[in-house]
Amino acid sequence: MTVKEILAKLVSFPVLGGESNLSIIHWIQNYIENFGIQTTLVPNEDGTKASLHCRIGPSKNGGVILSGHTDVVPVEGQDWHTDPFTLVDKNGTLYARGSADMKGFVACCLATLPAMVEADLKRPIYFAFTYDEEIGCLAAPELIEHIKASYPEQAKYAIIGEPSMLEPVIGKKGICYVQTEVTGSAGHSSGIHKEVSAIHESTHLILWLENKMKQLSQANQDERFDPPHSTIHVGQIKGGVATNIVADYTRFEWDIRVIPHDNIHTIFDEFFAYCKEREKSVQKLFPEFTITNTLLHPPVPALDTKPSDSIVALTQKISGKSTWKTVAFAAEAGQFHEAGYESIICGPGSIEQAHRANEFTTQEQLDRCVTMLENLVTELSK
Ligand SMILES: [Zn+2]
């Protein structure tokens, strides 16, 4: 099958983050096994989803993991001009949900598989395909553990094929989404002196977060990123029913994006300690007062590959791009980096098209990515 035919097949599975991906992963598994390669599925707890890994080539140290996710983001409320789950080719521009993010890369991996199988690889290539990436990179940690436990040899590198126009990406911020709930007391606003407003209390917490960001931005800067410091931002707040009623409940959601120098867990610990302190002092007035913090997904670590790391030279050589850059989006690259692999993001298509209506990649990008992977085969056959 050509890379375009494979991509057309992959986009026809409308698997959203959070949904069962068994349809697409079974198709991929079948495709790979037709080339005589043994695959392993790593299912979730109830068996409704699975990641896949396999090795092509010898059981030798120093191999390369090619990583992709099989889920996509929803299309609801977007103005699509074509069916998002049918690949439509308009003069070499290929439209479909997932064409850029990131079934295009998975299609390139699968299209290059015959060449990988035929080659005399001295070091192996692994495929590592996940589910639920789009809702917080949920499956990658377990898949990585499984890969480490399954093979006697250790891979050295991981290339994560998120859309980067095939330019090597060596850094991204760590990220986490958090929900904070505050419960106060209800009552007439005229009695605010003896009530605890959840809205008023929330503002203390939000100001703490804003001040924390200011403090972090002055303490540590990393010029590879824009902005060059960690950010904290409250994106949603809900609470209150009327101007003259004290709000007994507020919920706000915020995100934190840290440069590699800053530690998400340390910042959480400080914030949670502040919440506890605040809770204790307000409970003296109103014992039912609570502040509850919920991480909406486990923190996704930063990607912090050094320009001098050998993965950068390798990726530059096979991609033909002598530059590197950093990005602002979350990806599984941080998790591979944290697990000890030299990791980099490099894939076809542009992140500008990801998550939007009329998402597209191009035949040219796919062809160039296939060439990049063929170059990888050549490098690993030396
Ligand atoms: Zn993606």
What does this structure look like?
This protein has 382 residues and is of the alpha+beta class. The protein has helices at 3-11, 22-33, 103-118, 140-150, 198-219, 264-283, 310-319, 333-338, 363-380, and strands at residues 39-43, 50-56, 63-69, 88-90, 93-95, 125-130, 155-160, 169-172, 174-183, 187-188, 231-239, 245-246, 249-258, 290-295, 303-304, 325-327, 342-345, 360-362. The strands form 5 sheets. Strands 1-2-6-3-7-17 form a 6-stranded mixed sheet, with helices on both faces. The chain has a 4-stranded antiparallel sheet with strand order 11-13-9-14, with helices on one face. Helix 1 packs across helix 3 (103-118), helix 3 runs parallel beside helix 9 (363-380) and helix 5 (198-219) packs antiparallel against helix 6. It is elongated. The two termini are 27 Å apart. It binds zinc ion (ZN).
What are the defining features of this structure?
382 residues; binds zinc ion; single chain; Alpha-Beta Plaits; four-stranded antiparallel β-sheet; 2 domains; alpha+beta; Aminopeptidase
Across the major sheet, the strand order is 1-2-6-3-7-17
Structural class: alpha+beta
The count of DSSP E runs of length 2 or more, i.e. the number of strands, is 18
What is Rg?
Answer: 24 Å
Order of helices and strands: HHEEEEEHEHEEEEHEEEHEEHEHEEH
Instruction: Report the biggest beta sheet as strand number plus sense, adding barrel if it closes.
Output: 6 strands, mixed
Percent range for helical residues? Answer: 25-40%
- Give the N-terminus to C-terminus distance in angstroms: 27 Å
Broad shape: elongated
Instruction: Work out the strand percent.
Output: 15-25%
Tally of separate domains: 2
Low-confidence stretches: none
Per the CATH scheme, the topology name of the largest domain is Aminopeptidase
Q: For the residues shown, what is the average pLDDT?
A: 96
- CATH-assigned homologous superfamily of the largest domain: Zn peptidases
What's the architecture of the largest domain, going by CATH?
3-Layer(aba) Sandwich
Ligand inventory: zinc ion
